[in-house]
Specification:
CATH superfamily: P-loop containing nucleotide triphosphate hydrolases
Radius of gyration: 19 Å
Number of domains: 1
CATH class: Alpha Beta
Number of strands: 6
CATH topology: Rossmann fold
Length: 325
């Protein structure tokens, strides 16, 4: 496969701790989708290692299960192969800015475009699949990715921001000093966001809430500008309630047939539970007020009821806010 032959790559985007892992890994269990593996993440100079990802198709026992950021993986799980966010690959192709920046208003250089397309083309060839998919958490980077792949599809996974904030503030990768005391990504928070943070004493809770707000809003705004007909949203709470129906709708939105393998992987490897109630038990009343003050309008924009808190209900499971039928 040549770098110019990459067909409609699919990018799953969303704030960390929003359910992106379970949804993407289930989708990636399809036999017709290639992905960056944890092996390529370790040695990003050799995309030919994608050939080892074929082991996941030979036997389901060789496919890696969910790797949650708040849990250690059993040693046997480390021997299995499966999808990875593979930021070392992205950094090699696009520079460290891909990991650390919102990339708003930034397009890929010709060199970055060629490196990324060549790498993904090799992964497709060595893994033997017709379509490529990846998961990227944090800012959506839709404008940047669209400058590389003009036919890319984007699936934005959204979860109640209050549940996302509660989950983030208890996992080690977010509790480190940098993420609790300064924005996790550069060039995204507005002066108004920073003023809201200052007004609340630069609290980690407010900072995390503001980052959820900016990430989900900027992702949708970028989609409206760069790829309104190539963008879909998926509510995590509704996925947990109806996962198999979601898989079929998601496949159709991505231009793919249904996949028994994805359904089987979901059934065998995951126990889905809606844990959104935890934030109501964890946060004090004044903290809930802070969250609702900072995120309430955005929650409503994405279909969530603020008081009492309820996720979106009814209508299509996978929504396309900029496509009218």
């Amino acid at each position: 496969m040549r770098a110019n032959d990459i067909d409609r790559p699919i990018f799953f985007v969303g704030m960390p701790r929003s359910g992106t892992t379970v949804i993407f890994q289930t989708f990636a269990a399809r036999p017709d989708v290639a992905w960056f593996s944890q092996l390529i993440e370790r040695v990003p100079r050799f995309p030919s290692l994608a050939v080892l990802s074929r082991l996941a198709d030979v036997s389901s026992s060789m496919r890696k299960s969910e790797s949650r950021s708040d849990q250690a993986r059993p040693w046997l799980e480390k021997l299995r192969v499966g999808p990875s966010e593979a930021y070392r690959v992205w950094e090699r192709c696009c520079g460290e800015k891909f990991r650390d920046d919102y990339l708003l208003g930034i397009q890929a250089t010709a060199e970055e475009r060629d490196r990324l397309r060549a790498t993904i083309s090799k992964v497709l060839r060595f893994q033997g699949k017709p379509r490529f998919a990846a998961k990227i958490t944090g800012p959506g980077r839709i404008g940047y990715l669209s400058s590389v792949f003009e036919d890319a599809r984007f699936v934005h996974v959204v979860r109640d921001g209050r549940a996302t904030v509660q989950s983030l503030m208890r996992v080690p990768f977010w509790r480190d000093k940098r993420r609790m005391d300064e924005p996790a990504w550069r060039n995204g928070l507005t002066q108004g966001d920073l003023a809201d943070w200052e007004a609340r004493g630069r609290s980690p809770l407010a900072l995390t809430a503001l980052q959820w707000r900016r990430v989900v809003e900027s992702t949708r705004d970028e989609a409206a500008r760069f790829g309104p007909d190539r963008y879909a949203e998926l509510c995590y709470e509704r996925f947990v309630a109806e996962p198999h129906q979601f898989l079929d709708e998601l496949a159709a939105v991505c231009g793919l047939p249904g996949s028994p393998e994805a359904h089987e992987f979901l059934e065998r490897r995951f126990e889905l539970r809606d844990m959104n109630f935890q934030w109501e038990d964890t946060f004090r009343s004044e903290e809930v007020k802070t969250l609702n003050d900072l995120m309430g309008s955005t929650l409503e924009r994405f279909g969530y009821d603020v008081d009492p808190p309820r996720p979106p209900a009814g209508g299509p499971r996978v929504t396309r806010p900029f496509v009218t039928t």
